[in-house]
Amino acid sequence: MAAALSLALAASLAWGVADFVGPLLGRTLGALRVLLWAQLGGSAAIALAVGVRGDAPRHWAVLWAVPAAVSGTLGLYAYYRGMATGTMAVVAPVAGASAVVPVVVGIATGDRPRAAQLAGIAAAILGVGLAAQERQEGRRRPAAGVGLALLAAIGFGLYFPPMHAAGAADAWWSSLVFRLTASSVVVAVAVVRRPAVRLSVRPLALAALVGCGDTLGNLLFAASSARGLLSLTSVLGSLYPIVTVVLAALVLKERVARAQRAGIVLTLVGIVLISS
């Protein structure tokens, strides 16, 4: 079990860094363009790794990665768009409330959460409510990007249960199926919307590295799924906003209102309590 928790925490670290750098690139280059090259870069990396290993998939359950990819990719696009219009220190914790979703799924399928986990759900919900509002001209209004962050939370939350099932069957192949499906979704959207997709060498390399980081997070989470329970691995995997918030504070020097700061702290505390 300790190995499963360590892998899930490592996934959070990989996702947290990727979810800071990717949206930062998306602010200037466009969310869809960065997502496209990130997905293609991640797909190439995991395809190479699986090819080198040379093992066939162990079970058909790796196909659970398909719905996980659809949900996760839609959530990621909403996340990038939210980061482009709002403050990272606000959007990331709101999206991180995705930790509530697998716990609710666990309750629905027979899990009995502890009092600390129920307190964590309450704290996360209250924290999201505080972080989601900002004061302008003496009136409270929804903070920029929060609506998209909530959509991202739903998308990310619905990623965990099917990806947990896929990863428990075969971490490597489930990660490949996930990335190929995600790439197909993004390419299809790009074909329909026809955005400018060309990038110069440096931003292209950065976008590809973001995809590799995101893929590493998926692989680590899938590996943790073979060793631990959904209610633990998925919530520990949801701790990535802590990394993103710290990077936003250190690199971008982001400042938010006092009530929003309280909401961010409550949300992060809630995520930690849910994982306890």
Which series of helices and strands comes N to C?
Answer: HHHHHHEEHHHHHH
Count of DSSP helices?
A: 12
Give the overall shape, derived from the CA principal axes: globular
Q: What kind of sheet is the major sheet?
A: 2 strands, antiparallel
Average pLDDT over all residues: 83
As a whole number of angstroms, the C-alpha radius of gyration is 18 Å
Tally of extended strands? 2
Helix content: over 70%
Uncertain runs: none
Strand content: under 5%
Distance between the termini: 14 Å
Oligomer: single chain
Secondary structure class reads mainly alpha
**Number of separate structural domains:** 1
Q: Reading side by side through the largest sheet, how are the strands ordered?
A: 1-2
Question: Would you kindly provide a written description of the structure presented here, covering whatever features stand out?
Answer:
- It is built from 12 helices and 2 strands.
- The protein has helices spanning 2-29, 31-53, 65-85, 88-96, 100-108, 115-131, 146-169, 171-193, 201-225, 230-237, 240-252, 258-274, and strands spanning 133-136, 139-142.
- It is globular and about 55 Å long.
- The mean pLDDT is 83.
